[in-house]
Amino acid sequence: MAEAQITDWLASQKQAMIDLLRDVVSIDSGSYDKAGVDAVGVRFERHFAEHGIPFRRESHSTFGDAIHAEVAKPGSNEKPVLLMGHRDTVFGKGEAGRRPFTIRDGRAYGPGVADMKSGLVMNVFVATAFHKFGGAPHPIKVLITSDEEIGSPSSRPVIEREGRSARAVFNSEPGRPTGNVVTGRKGGIFMHMAITGKAAHSGANFAAGVSAIGELAHKIVQIHALTNLDKGITLNVGLVSGGQSVNTTAPYAEGQIDLRYVDPADRARIMAAIEKIVATSYVPGTSATLTIKGEFVPVVQSAESKALFEKYQAAARQVGLTTLQGEFSGGCADSGFTAAVGTPTICGLGPVGGLAHTPEEYLEVDSIVPRAQALALAILRG
Questions:
Q1: Which string of DSSP letters, residue by residue, matches 198-211?
Q2: Which of 86, 226, 347, 355 could tie 360 with a disulfide, CB 3.0–4.6 Å?
Q3: Which of 88, 147, 162, 295 does the annotation list as catalytic?
Q4: What pTM value is reported for the model?
């Protein structure tokens, strides 16, 4: 009985889901914009309050607060199912005004519409359905985090703690453009490399100078050479800056490094190689430091996660998603943290979208209801 009530109710809530999505996409929430990220959180808290769902806020002084909500029978001490997602985006202040939420030809557009505000909307409506009709074999926890796009510096310990206490984790990052979900992901480390040289007039006193930019160039070549596409290892120095003026040897330079890998065993080996490159002075007189700014761990599919995916896949077939498969993604996500603590985890369960992190980011509007129904049925089947 609860199964039909829940799936029918979710079908009736399509416009309400779109309305909530419009509200949260219309609020700028770049990762470093605590006020904006928290404002999105307040909108979700309002939804919980309107539906009588208990929630609490776990505060953080620098980044957005973590929001927790729970649907459970009184006195239940069973391990919950965790529905997880982040509300920060990669976009700066003013982007929501420049690119407001719109729907054209069945697709919704706007900053964060797919990555991943629609997944959060889906999660809260699924939780609301169980609060309204009951039927969940286990408690349901909703976790809305704040800083995934920069490696979850404040949210990682929260995610790991909640993941350890959960029986299963569904992370509602966007469904792939193929309609698939994500059963494996790369790990990633984001690093900052700072190089010190010595300034000198590049015409009158060139020999006295030590170029930090010259040193950076050597290091970039060496770091990029660590890429091994056959093993899924990529190195990218994606941002560089440095120097004082065109006629001065550069006293300072910096580069930001993105490492992606598949096999957890490769992490230590590649990091040791990067650290050696940073410690080596190719231009005599320079020095350098390396700082890890953020890190994700891989999602490696365990036997338990495979069984969880198969249960979800069967539920998806029941609501018409007959071609849905598991897919590997080179992108990183918070799901790696819960997979790494041993909790069965699947990712990319959110509504289908694509072109994340670009002005062309889109969401397939008609995917919202069936993806919500598939998640609800997977929860019902324990």
A1: B--BTTTSGGG-B-
A2: 355
A3: 88
A4: 0.91
